[in-house]
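INFO  loader      accepted 1 record
INFO  loader      residues=162
INFO  predictor   begin
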Amino acid sequence: MSSIQVHILAVGKLKERYWAEAAQAYLKRLSFYADVYLDEVPDQPVPKTPNPGERDGVLAAEGEALLGRIKDRDWVTALTLDGRRWTSEQFAEQWQGWMSRGAARYVFVVGGTLGLHYRVTRRADALWSLSPLTFPHQMARVIVLEQLYRAFQILRGGTYHR
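INFO  predictor   done
INFO  writer      dumping C-alpha cells
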C-alpha cells in the first residue's frame, strides 16, 4: 500500500464501458505509485435549456455533494476551463510540488455537464484546465488518470513518456 492517496472525485458515473475500462487500466498502472480511487457523486438532472436559476440549482446540489466528500486536510485540484494549463512535464513538476506538501489526500475534482459550483473552485488549492477544448466529463477523468501516470513516469525517469 502506497502512502500517497489520490481521489478522482467526479460528478456522475462512467456509463460507457470503454471509459470504465480505460479508467481501470490506468488505475492498475497507477497502483504501483499511489492508492488511487474513483469517487463519484450523483449528477443532477439538467433541463434541456436551463434558465439561470435551474443552472445554479444543479451546480449547487452537485457542489454540495462534492464538498461533502472533501476533507479539511485534502489538497484539492479542481478541473475548470479557467484553470492553469501545463505541458505534461510542467504538470509533473506541479505534481511533485503538491506531493511535497504532505497532504492527507490529493483530490482531483471533475464537474458534471455544467461544470463546477463556485464554492468548489473556491475550496480548491489549484485550478487545472486540461485544454481550451471541452471534453466529456467521463473523458476528463481518464485524461486525469493518464496524466497522473505520465507524471509519475516522468518523475521516475520511466519510458512511458518518450
